[in-house]
Design a protein that fits this description.
alpha/beta, 2 domains, 6-stranded parallel β-sheet, two-stranded antiparallel sheet, 42% helix, globular
């Protein structure tokens, strides 16, 4: 085993711990504020003033429709879809919400038929009289208004999915802008990232493997021993510094305005209606379309001829371990042959965060679900059933409080 070669898996909890207001809740508050500004204009009792706004195909529309003002302020249909969806879930589950809308013919969407409902309503109005939008309105009516007012929609589900995808691109761009603004306004973000990253990298290692030198603008110790799989849209590694660890932002970068909100495509079938349009919403499809640059190999594979070949440690911090990203973790576990190898898994929780009183118990539950689910994918079902027990017996599964200060980092012979 390569004991000091490790992969750090970072989720949004990493950025939040570094003081960045990167939560979706924070972002949506800014979107709600824009909508309320327009709502107050309309509720004043006076007609909205006439405005001219551009459409995606380059032509312009002129009038005082509410949809024109929402569009002109950069609000997308996904703003209103997600706001409405939150009333059902009590929190923003972006991926589940997108899937409920676009994977409309799948039984996994709990009977939600938004696409069919919109197509039916379009036929009812004959495609001639666009819906008059005014507050309050539901997400279905908003989509219908946008499709009719700005996209010259033909009433078909496939073209409506294309519209929803275009709107998703606009929504992602707004989130990217929001994140860049938050980074610019947070003067301590970079130093906080470096401090936390070094704590995570050096924790549970036999010796320090990562240091940041602000004087020399470089990484030192053994940066090549640490690789990072980042589910955030920010950059924990200073690209201008020398000898930085390998870092893969799997879902894009805010700086490049190419971030991805995608869905899990596991249960999407080519036999489904509008499959060609639906598949474009999946993470796999969108990552392929992101760029043609080959992704670096993050883990050293397990070789039966060399049992010490696999990456020694995989650490998780700030990630929800949600179902939508399980395929990434399964691929990593397969690569290191988790059952056969000596690879350790370390999951960090943070009981100091707001509402973190139950953080330890919550992490136990999530890890149990992740490992149990992965075990079910193994060809040897006996191995799958006892994988969690095996990891615990061999000391290869650690669940602990994240080291937030340098003196908390555990360094010794492991």
């Amino acid at each position: 085993m390569l004991p000091d070669r490790q992969v750090l898996v970072l989720g949004n909890g990493f950025d939040l711990q570094c003081g960045l207001k990167s939560s979706f809740e924070d972002f949506m508050q800014t979107r709600i504020a824009i909508a309320n500004e327009i709502k107050n204009m309309q509720s004043s009792g006076e007609d909205l003033p006439l405005i001219t706004v551009p459409c995606p195909d380059g032509h312009e529309v002129h009038g005082n429709n509410l949809s024109y003002f929402l569009w002109g302020k950069g609000l997308t249909v996904w703003d209103f879809i997600l706001l409405e969806d939150k009333q059902l879930r009590a929190w923003y589950d972006v991926e589940a919400c997108i899937k409920d809308w676009v994977d409309y013919s799948s039984p996994s969407t709990s009977g939600k038929t938004h696409i069919r409902e919109i197509c039916k309503e379009f036929k009812n109005i004959g495609g001639k009289f666009w819906p008059y939008l005014e507050f309050p309105f539901d997400a279905v009516l908003c989509v219908l208004a946008y499709a009719a007012d700005f996209y010259s929609w033909d009433g078909q589900p496939g073209s409506l999915l294309d519209i929803l995808l275009d709107q998703l691109h606009h929504f992602e761009a707004k989130f990217a802008i929001y994140l860049m603004e938050q980074i610019q306004h947070n003067g301590r973000y970079t130093s906080s990232v470096n401090d936390l990253l070094s704590c995570l990298a050096n924790d549970e290692m036999s010796e320090p493997v990562l240091y940041m030198s602000y004087v020399q603008d470089r990484y030192s110790a053994s940066p090549g021993f640490t690789k990072i799989l980042d589910f955030n849209y920010t950059e924990p590694i200073k690209k201008t510094w020398k000898d930085g660890p390998t870092c893969l932002n799997v879902h894009g970068l805010a700086r490049s305005y190419n971030i991805i909100f995608g869905i899990d495509g596991t249960n999407i079938s080519p036999e489904q209606e509008c499959y060609a349009e639906i598949v474009k919403f999946t993470k796999t499809y969108r990552i392929m379309a992101l760029n043609s640059i080959p992704h670096p190999s993050l883990v050293s594979p397990y070789l039966s001829s060399d049992p010490d070949s696999a990456t020694g440690t995989i650490k998780f911090f700030g990630h929800s371990l949600a179902e939508a990203d399980c395929s990434y973790f399964q691929a990593i576990f397969d690569e290191v042959s988790l059952y056969e190898s000596n690879t350790r898994l370390i999951f960090y929780y943070n009981k100091r965060r707001r509402g973190g009183e139950n953080a330890q118990a919550e992490m136990f539950e999530k890890v149990n679900h992740l490992i149990t689910t992965y075990g079910q994918t193994l060809d040897n079902k006996d191995h799958g059933r006892n994988l969690l027990h095996k990891l615990l017996l061999e000391g290869r599964l650690i669940i602990k409080q994240v080291p937030l200060d340098s003196h908390e980092v555990r360094i010794g012979n492991n």
